[in-house]
Amino acid sequence: MGTRCRVSYLDSRSVEHVVDVTADSLFEAAAVAVRAFREGALVEELPVPGTELRITVSPLPVEHRVRLQRVEQWAQTGTVKSPVEMLRRERVRELLGFKNETVR
C-alpha cells in the first residue's frame, strides 16, 4: 500500500523541485522521486549522486535527508537481511535503472 511522501531537492540555481510519491521505504521514496524527476518535462537540472534529497513522510511531518549516492550505494551493495529487504532493494534498483544488476 505504501506511505505518502514528499521528496524535494534544490538544484544549483536554488530552484526547488518537489514531487509527491507513495513508497514502502525511505530509499524507495527517493528512487520513485528520482525516476519522476528524470521523466519530468520541466526539470532542467536532474539530481546527481551528491544531491541531497529531502523526504517528508505524511501524515505526520517527519523529514529525512539522504544523498542520492547513498540510495544508489544501498541498492547495489550490502548484506540483505530478509526477503522483504531483498524485494525492496530490487525495486529501488529497478526504479534507478539498475534492474539487471545484482546486489554485491
Structure in words:
By secondary structure, the protein is α+β, with helices and mostly antiparallel strands. The protein has one domain. The chain is built from 3 helices and 4 strands; from the N terminus they run ββαββαα. It has helices at 26-39, 68-76, 83-96, and strands at 3-10, 16-23, 52-57, 62-67. Strands 2-1-3-4 form a 4-stranded antiparallel β-sheet. A hairpin with a 4-residue loop joins strand 3 (52-57) and strand 4 (62-67). Helix 1 runs parallel beside helix 3 and helix 2 (68-76) crosses helix 3. The protein is globular, with a radius of gyration of 13 Å.
Summarize the structure.
This protein is α+β, with helices and mostly antiparallel strands and 104 residues long. The protein contains 3 helices and 4 strands, in the order ββαββαα. The model has no long low-confidence stretch (mean pLDDT 89).
